Amino acid sequence: MSSWTAAHVAAIAPDAPTAPIIGAHDVRPVADNLDIWDAWPVQQRDGAPIELANGAQLWMALAAPHFADPDERHGRARIHLFHYRGDRWSHVGPAMPDGFSPGSREWSGSAIWDEASDDVILYFTAAGRRGEAAPSFEQRMFSARARLSEAGGLTGWQDLREIVTIDPDHYMSTREGGGIGTIKAFRDPAWFRDPADGRPYLFFAASRAGSTSAYNGVVGMASADPATPDDWVIAPPLLSADGLNNELERPHMVVYEGSYYLFWSTQRHVFNPDGPTGPTGLYAMVAPAVSGPWRPVNGSGLVFANPATAPAQSYSWMVLPDLSVTSFIDNWGDGDERRFGGTFAPFLRLWLDGDRAGVTA
Q1: Owning domain of residue 138
Q2: CB neighbours of 318 closer than 8 A, spacing ≥ 6?
Q3: Residue 1 within any structural domain of the chain
Q4: Mean pLDDT computed over every residue of the chain
Q5: Assessment of whether the complete model's pTM goes beyond 0.85
Q6: Does residue 120 lie within any of the structural domains?
Q7: What 3-state class would DSSP assign to 76?
Q8: Binding-site sequence positions
Q9: Per residue in 202-260, pLDDT tens?
């Protein structure tokens, strides 16, 4: 297991890369009375988004009705479908039918197109349990299959199964209390196929068992034999931020020019306040293989941050194989007034060169 340490975060340069400012012209709602946040495309096995017959890409995002307090959205989150074509987003509707998901809410995941069956396989987080009296923060990871409809939606959902269960030797239970930013994690399954040997992996946000720190975020891992890709075996964490940071959210892997990049998002307020603390941003490690050894990109792990004048303007970044980066608009603009965007942020593009990275101009 590799570590992301206080010494790495202390090495963040004062002139570290930052994302461009998001302005009012960028805040374009995708549907009436609907806020969205964490988003991901339906991907081919190599990570590229699939293309529908009409040329659109099929995407998923967490969505909820608009609330005066944006934090309330987490208690009503469902996965919705969207089409993306020609720089335009259109809302399709909820991905799964009412009553199908085993949770009281649906949280982040990933989705792939299975070329053998023509199914879409969704890997997602079930938060809480269906029918619970009050929303809990228990998290379980599931997969399910559906067929693509002629209209570019998903139908015939089936084969709902729990992917992996918590190994208490390595991962902490999520049944304890807490609130947004302090809860423990077992969520955000991101599917990846190693081009070196075809082995499938799932990377996920988790919390280290046995830690003496409240800040014990890790990137968890499961893998499967290519011959039986639905039979996942949980493994020890790939990366630990024990003592440094509580949440390494939406971890995912991209291979570029022979190097393996493990990306994750985190926020300033989930760092250990004893310091050092990093900005809200996209972070990464790089290695020659999944097995490592892993070293921090840019010497610190920070790929880019939100700008200092708008430190929470976007979040939940996902890097695609072409190095385009999606996220959602969070608290945009400067000043003290909270302005939750609740929509897709403009795409960014990275440059990667070994263990160096940044945002293209």
Answers
A1: 28-359
A2: 39, 40, 250, 252, 263, 325, 326, 327
A3: no
A4: 96
A5: yes
A6: yes
A7: helix
A8: 37, 108
A9: 999 999 999 999 999 999 999 999 999 999 999 999 999 999 999 999 999 999 999 99
Which residue positions form the known binding site for substrate?
Answer: 37, 108
Report the CATH number at residue 142: 2.115.10.20
Euclidean distance between CA atoms 282 and 325, whole angstroms: 10
Closest CA to 59 of 125, 152, 139: 152
Q: Is residue 67 part of a domain?
A: yes
Reported for 166-173, long-range contacts at CB under 8 A and 24+ positions apart, including other chains, are: 167/234, 168/209, 169/209, 170/208, 170/209, 170/220, 170/234, 170/236, 170/237, 171/206, 171/207, 171/208, 171/209, 171/218, 171/220, 171/234, 171/237, 172/206, 172/207, 172/208, 172/209, 172/211, 172/216
Domain count, the chain: 1
Whole-number Cα distances in Å, 58 to 121, 139, 291, 346: 13, 26, 32, 17
- Higher pLDDT, residue 117 or 146: 146
User: Dihedral of CA 242/214/237/201: which sign?
Assistant: negative
Query: Is residue 5 a part of any domain in this protein?
Result: no
